[in-house]
Amino acid sequence: MGFQEALSRILGSLQPLEAEAVPVRCAAGRVLAEDVHAPIDLPPSDRAAVDGYALRHEDTLGAPVRLRLRGSVTAGEVPEGELAPGECVQITTGSVLPSGADAVALVERVRLEGEWVVLQAGVGRYEGVHRRGEEVRRGELVLPRGTRLTPRDVGVLSGMGVAELMVARSPRVGLIVTGKELQSPGEEMRPAGTYDANTGAIAGEAERLGCRVVFSTICGDSREEVEAAMGRALELADVVVATGGTGIGSLNLSIRMQKEFAQDVMPFLLEERGELLVYGVRSIPGKPLAFGLVDGKPVFALPGWPLSAVVTFHFYVKPALLRLMGVREQPREAAVLERGVEKERHLTKFAPVRLRRRERVVAEPLYLPGPPSAARAFRALAQADGIAVVPEGVERLEAGEVVEVELL
Amino acid sequence: MGFQEALSRILGSLQPLEAEAVPVRCAAGRVLAEDVHAPIDLPPSDRAAVDGYALRHEDTLGAPVRLRLRGSVTAGEVPEGELAPGECVQITTGSVLPSGADAVALVERVRLEGEWVVLQAGVGRYEGVHRRGEEVRRGELVLPRGTRLTPRDVGVLSGMGVAELMVARSPRVGLIVTGKELQSPGEEMRPAGTYDANTGAIAGEAERLGCRVVFSTICGDSREEVEAAMGRALELADVVVATGGTGIGSLNLSIRMQKEFAQDVMPFLLEERGELLVYGVRSIPGKPLAFGLVDGKPVFALPGWPLSAVVTFHFYVKPALLRLMGVREQPREAAVLERGVEKERHLTKFAPVRLRRRERVVAEPLYLPGPPSAARAFRALAQADGIAVVPEGVERLEAGEVVEVELL
Predict the structure, then answer these.
(1) In this structure, what DSSP letter does residue A326 have?
(2) Same domain, yes or no: B187 and B303
(3) What span, in angstroms and rounded, lies between the C-alpha atoms of A393 and A264?
(4) In chain B, at which end, N or C, are there fewer CB atoms within 10 A of the end residue's CB?
(5) Do A296 and A211 reside in the same domain of the chain?
(6) Contact A210/A183 with Cβ under 8 angstroms?
(7) Looking at A130, A147, A178, which one is the last position of a domain?
C-alpha cells in the first residue's frame, strides 16, 4: 500500500491516552488535554501602565495645570480613599489606580514643585492606564486542547493564576532492537559485530516528543527471542517500536525467500499474536515496514538501518505518538530544493536534507548516489535537519522546485 | 550603551563551565565539550549492503553463469573459510563478506536451481558491498566540541561504539522574581495582586536550553528581601536571573526619581556587592536591564513585565547560558516582514513575531499599537514564535523587508 494509506490505517487504529493533572510549573513541553479559558480578567483591575501620576483626565483639560500630590501607591498596594478633583497620586507601573483616577501622566512629562505636580499638556482619558480585561477577558479561550505548551504558554497560564492543568499522559515506549550482530556501545567489538545506533537515536527522538522510554533491549533475530522481548515490552509500554527483523529487500521478494532468510520475524509475530494492519509500504525508506496491534497496543517494526529507522520513525511512529497525546497536527515546512531528487514513480521518497534558512528556506539533499542509499547514509543522520517528502506519482523534482519538509 | 556593547560586556565576563562525563544514551540535548573522533572504521569490515549472494566478481564476467551455493552467512556470523572460484554464499544485509568474495548479487537478480545460483548478468567489483571505512574512517572528526547533540548524533556516536562523552555541565540557574504585588498561581488573588508569570516562563526557557533551575523565589522589592534572595541564589546557582526591581521608566529618568520610587534595588545591589557591568541598554525592551558579577557569578536583572522579561532573556541571558555551555553560535533565521515596524533610531527593537514558514518565511509583527507595548502584549507571549531584531540606526522597516529573527 502507499504511504498515505499506511498512515491512515495506523492513525485509525489509535485513541488518545487518558489525561493527567500536572502543576503549571512542570507543564512546559506537555500537551493540553483541555481547552483553557481565562479564570480572571487580565489585568484584574485598572492598573498604571507607566510610572507617573494618577489623576482625573478632566483636571488636565486646561493645561498647563498643577495638581496637588496626595501621596503614592506602588504595585501590590490598595490605594486608600477616593481621588478628589485637583489631586494626583504618585504611582508605579502595575499599581492599582486609585478610585476616581482615570489616567496616568508619564513621570517624564511632569515637573514637581513641592507638593504640586505641574503638567504642560493634557492627559487623555485612560492614557497610561492598563484597563481591566484589556489583555484577556475572563472566560475567553486562551489555549485550546492539543496545544504543546511552550515556556511562554506556561508564563501566560501562570499569569492568569492557573495552578494545575490536565495534560496528555506521556506515552510509555518500549524499544526492541533486533539483530544478533548488534552490540551495545562500550562493549568490545566482536569480529562480525555492529554497534547499535538505533536504541540511542529512537529513544532520544521519542523522549523529545514527550514520551518515556520504559523498556529497551537488543535481541537476536530468532522468533523465540523477539517474542519474549515483545511480551516484556507489551507489559510495560503503551507502544512498542522494534527495528530490524523486517529484512525483505523489496516488495517483490517471494515468500519462499522470506522464509529462507528467516529474518522477517516481526510481521509473522504480529499476524499470529494480534492484528497485522500494515506490511510493506511503497515508501523509501519504509518498504518492509510492519504495523499491527497486539493486546490492543500499537507495535511498529521498522527497518534496521539506522537512517531508515530514524526516517520511518518520523513519518510513521511520530504521528502515532502525537495522536496518542492528542497533539493538533502541524503543517510541514516548505523549502526550495538545491539539487534535483529522483525516484521510482510508485514510491514516496523521504530524502534527508540539510536546511539553510534565510528568507528563503533552501533544502540540500544529503542522499549519496548509488543504492542502497540507506546503508550508505549513516552520517546523513547527523547532518540532516529535515526530511523532504517526494510524493507518489512524481519521478523527479528539479532544483528550484518546492518540497514539503518534515523537521527533525 | 547599545545592545551589541552590552552583549559583548556580558559575554566577555564569562568562561565556559567545566565538563562532565555522561553515558551516550543520556547525551541528547547536551553540549559536546570535546571533539569526537571516530574510534573505529564504519563499517568495521566489508559487509553485504543488500540481501543476496556473495561471490567473486571475476566469476561473473562471462554471464550468464552459474555458481555453486556453498552455504550461508547472516549478520553477526563470521564466515568460515575462503570462497573458492566458482562458489557463492547466501548472505544477508550487514553480514561480513567471506574471504575471497568481493561483490554481492542482489537476491532479486538471481535464480536458484538446486545447489546452483544462476546469474544472467555480471556483477561489478564491490557491487552490493558496503566497504570498510566507507562511511567513517577511524580517527576522522565526527562531531566538534560545542555541538548540541541531537538524538541522531547520539545514534551516530552509539554506532561508532562511543559509550561515554564529555559534555558541558548544565548551568544551575537561580530565579528571583521581585514585586510585592506578585502571587503564585493557585493563591487566592489579593485586591492589588498580580499572578507571577515570570517564574514559569523563564524557568521553562532556561530548562529548554539545558539548564537546571535550582532556586526560585518571589520576593518583595525591598533591599533587604532582594539581598537575602540573591545571597541564597548565589550559594546554589551558577547564574542568577532576577526580574523586576529595575523599574526605571527610561534612560533620562533622573537619579532623584529612581530613589524616590525606590524600586531599582538590583543595580544598586550589584554595584555594592560586586561589579556592575551593564545598567541601561538602548534596546526596547531592555532599557532598564542590569548585569554584573557577584562573587564572580553572573547576575542579570531583567525588566518585570512578562513579555519584556522573556524577550530580554532571549537576547541577553540565553547567549550567556550558551557561552557557559560552550555552544557554538548559531546564525539567526531571516524572514520577510508582513507589516512595517517603527522605532526610535537610537534603539535596538526586539519585536515579537509569528512566523509563517513556507518556502519564504514571513514574519507577522505581534506588537500592539500604543505605548508601552510591553505592558499590553501579554498574549503575544503565547502567540510569538520568534523575535525580530530591528537594529540601531534604523527608524522604520517596511513590509517586505528582511529581518533577522531569533527563534523562540
Answers:
(1) T
(2) yes
(3) 29
(4) N
(5) yes
(6) no
(7) A130
- In a domain, residue A23? The reply is no
Tens of pLDDT along chain B (408 residues) come to 999 999 999 999 999 999 999 999 999 999 999 999 999 999 999 999 888 999 999 999 998 999 999 999 988 899 999 999 999 999 988 899 999 999 999 988 899 898 999 999 999 999 999 999 988 899 999 999 999 999 999 999 999 999 999 999 999 999 999 988 999 999 999 999 999 999 999 999 999 999 999 999 999 888 899 999 999 999 999 999 999 876 544 333 444 444 444 457 888 899 999 999 999 999 988 988 999 999 999 999 999 889 899 999 999 999 999 999 999 877 888 899 988 888 899 999 998 898 887 777 788 877 554 444 444 566 777 778 888 898 999 999 998 899 989 888
Global pTM?
0.91
Does A21 fall in a domain?
no
Domain final position from B279, B305, B325: B325
Chain B residues closer than 8 Å to A80 by CB: none
Measured between beta carbons, which residues in chain B are less than 8 angstroms from residue A191?
Answer: 45, 78, 96
Contact with chain B for residue A151, Cβ under 8 A: yes
The ipTM assigned to this model is 0.90
Distance (Å) from the C-alpha of residue A67 to the closest C-alpha of chain B? 18
Q: How many CB pairs under 8 A join A and B?
A: 341
B51: nearest CB among A179, A196, A249:
A249
Three-state SS annotation for A251-273? CCCCHHHHHHHCCCHHHHHHHHH
Q: Are B378 and A205 an interchain contact pair (Cβ–Cβ within 8 Å)? A: no
User: Cell 519538509 belongs to which residue?
Assistant: A405
CB contacts under 8 A, B 83-142 vs A, are 90, 92-96, 106-108, 130, 134-136, 142
Q: Scanning the structure block, which residue is given the C-alpha cell 547472516?
A: B74
Structural domains of chain A, count: 4
Residue A154 cell numbers, joined: 506556561
B186/A161 touch (CB, cutoff 8 Å), yes or no: yes
Using a CB–CB cutoff of 8 Å, tell me whether B368 touches chain A.
Answer: no
**B150: containing domain:** 23-41+136-168
Q: Cell 529573527 maps to which residue?
A: B405
Whether the CB of B49 is below 8 Å from some CB of chain A: the reply is yes
Task: Please give the Cα distance from A362 to A397 (Å, whole number).
Answer: 14
Residues whose CB is less than 8 angstroms from the CB of residue B111 and which lie 6 or more positions away in sequence, other chains included: B117, B118, B120
